[in-house]
Amino acid sequence: MFRKTVLNLTLACTLALAVAGCSQKKMTSLKDGTYTASTTGHNGPLEVKVTVALGKIKDIDATKNVETKGIGSLAIEKIKNKVIAKQTLNLDTATGATISSAATLRALKDALKEAGLTKESVDGMPKESINQVLSEKEYQYDVVVIGAGGAGLTAAIQARAKGAKVLVLEKTSQVGGNTLVSGGGINVPGTDLQKKKGITDSVELYKKDTLKGGDNVGNPELVDTLSSKALDAYQWLVKDVKMNFIQDRVQQFGGHSVARAVIPVGNSGYEMMSKLEKLAMDKGVDIFKNTGAKKLMVDDKGVITAVIAENAGKEVRFIAKKAVVLASGGFGSNIAMRKEYNPAYDEKYKTTCISASSGDGINMAKDIGAALVDMKQIQVYPTCNPQTGIISYVANARFDGGILVNQEGKRFVNDMGRRDVISNAILAQPGKYAYLLWGQEVEKNGHMTKMHKNEFENLKKSALLFEANSIEELAEKTKIDVTTLKKTLEAYNGYVKAGSDPEQQRGGKLRTILQGPFYIQKVAPATHHTMGGVKINSKAEVLNKDGKAIQHLFAAGEVAGGVHGTNRLGGNAITDIVVFGRIAGENAAK
Predict the structure, then answer these.
(1) Percent of the chain, pLDDT > 90?
(2) Closest to 367 in 3D by CA, of 326, 320, 318
């Protein structure tokens, strides 16, 4: 009996060691050296340089890329760290940055083929995840915020400031949402930066512009809240969030009577989102990434009690003892949903929106009886990359004096008009695209080619932007009739000198286009913002179809409708998310 027991134990130990040995897979020994490979990421060329020493990956340099800061760049960094730490290339991709992740892994594998890497050796490596995996089936918080974009983090910080225990659920691998990929400009009347430039503005003028810009379809009560609380929101961003704004720049977007948009350093949403994330973490806000909300739970009294979400393929329940805040964004990336509410915006449109803009929050709210408003109102942005649909920030040269011409070399629209008007005008041109043209008078004011250098260089490599010392050379590169183009510029420069543009009634600052080097960029519209969403009141409470507040449910940002009417003016989205995000967070904590 004793001998049998010992034999069984010996066999068990032997099997255990064998299993352990099989489970502890290691990276195939690689040939020492430095290896380089290139591929195409989400935004353009992506290069990796891998250093192998003593058969192991010691360093990865992937700095040569044009991926979106805070999204693609963050995914690259996560992959780099995981590969070096775990010595494996058997990784999943980052949710919300799939293209950038896949491109990075592809480039790494290509680079290491010369070092002896094979597909079989990759398959035999330990499987690792760069996404967050939760351990519990249920969590309890006072306030649960759905979405870690600008509105979501603003609401979370405000709720935490009022003493609530706060959780933010984010279905992708990174915070930021559409705010992160925006230009970050925020419209505010009465800022210190306006006063420095002697710009006269008022809450009433801002309200008037916003209502008019949306064809007076926007809810006046919500627009009044947006306008009257904009300055407080800006001051909060400066004093509490510690955002830095360009001190000598106040921008006038189309549809505004005066320049009122303050621009963050870097002219992108990264300045806001990086600072909001830091403040939220410092204040004790929990953020669960890779956790997509699926359903709102309601008790028999109609009160929101919890959120059901999915993480790593498993269902997780989040109890919200006080309230839930919807801040999950719009539905610009959801083609089926766009077609459901406005069939005109079908597959032929690319989008500036991140893939997570799929309308989840709107549908969850609709399922529990929330009213929807303005759902057919979908906005396209006029100056995007025709190949990818990504919004072009180099093309912000338009706001500093650049003009739009068509393939025939003729002007066809007020370059500073409303986004919807310009977009529709571009789509009516031959080929459904246009060219943005500017010279050094404009460039020396806005510096767009330098401020957005990576995009500028990528556009040139993609033959979407040309730089030349003469108009003749630009015409040759774009196949535009040189005689027509020169006549167009001669007429326009004459308008600038006269101080008015009788041909297209261009607003904003008029600047000549006489000094080279000159730039010409091909642009096309892409879906950009969905003005419709759940119906809210000025307290950010979500309303049902009877106009009554759904208890313990709030909403802010693009998930909510009624603020912008038929058309959102440039710079109003950021004002919207901060104003109503703060209101939603404060009221949720109560």
Answers:
(1) 90
(2) 326
Q: Which residues pair with 543 in a beta bridge?
A: 549
At 464-496, the pLDDT tens digits run: 999 999 999 999 999 999 999 999 999 999 999
Domain boundaries, the chain: 33-123, 138-377+531-589, 380-526
Smallest CA-to-CA distance from 150 within 327, 324, 281 is with 327
Architecture of domain 33-123: Alpha-Beta Complex (3.90)
Q: Structure pTM?
A: 0.86
Q: How far apart are CA 442 and CA 433, in angstroms?
A: 22
CB 522 within 8 A of CB 459: no
Give the contacts of 424 (CB within 8 A, at least 6 positions apart).
none
Q: 159-178 pLDDT, tens per residue?
A: 999 999 999 999 999 999 99
- What six digits make up the tokens of 10? 């010996």
User: Which residues touch 173 (CB under 8 Å, ≥6 apart)?
Assistant: 74, 75, 78, 94, 95, 96, 97, 130, 131, 132, 289, 290
- Cα 563 to Cα 557: distance, rounded to the nearest angstrom: 10
Instruction: To the nearest 10°, report the CA torsion of 181, 183, 188, 191.
Output: 120
Q: pLDDT digit string (tens) for 322-372?
A: 999 999 999 999 999 999 999 999 998 999 999 999 999 999 999 999 999
Q: How far apart are CA 134 and CA 157, in angstroms?
A: 22
CATH 3.90.1150.10 fits 138-377+531-589, yes or no: no
Q: Which two tokens stand for residue 553?
A: 């449910």
Helices (H), 428-560: 440-446, 448-451, 453-461, 471-478, 482-498
Q: What is the 3-state secondary structure (H, E, C) of 188-212?
A: CCCCHHHHHCCCCCCHHHHHHHHHH
Radius of gyration (Cα) for the chain, nearest Å?
27
Q: Is 547 helix (H, G, I), strand (E, B) or coil?
A: coil
Residue 177 CA to residue 197 CA, distance in Å, equals 32
The one-letter amino acid at 163: G
* pLDDT for residue 44: 83
Close Cβ partners of 283 (under 8 Å, ≥ 6 residues apart): 157, 160, 161
Ranges of the chain with pLDDT below 70: 1-28
Q: Give the C-alpha separation, 522 to 465, whole Å.
A: 6
Count CA within 13 A, CB hemisphere, residue 340: 14
Contact 405, 440 (CB under 8 A): no
Q: What does the pLDDT read at residue 96?
A: 87
Q: Give me the active site residues, please.
A: 419
The second-level CATH assignment, the architecture, of 380-526 is: Alpha-Beta Complex (3.90)
HEC-encoded secondary structure of 54-102: CCEEEEEECCCECCCCCCHHHHHHHHHHHHHHHCCCCECCCCCCHHHHH
> How many other CB atoms sit within 10 Å of the CB of residue 166?
30
Rounded Cα distance between 177 and 154, Å, is 13
| Strand pairing category for 138-146 and 314-326 | parallel
H/E segment holding residue 269: none
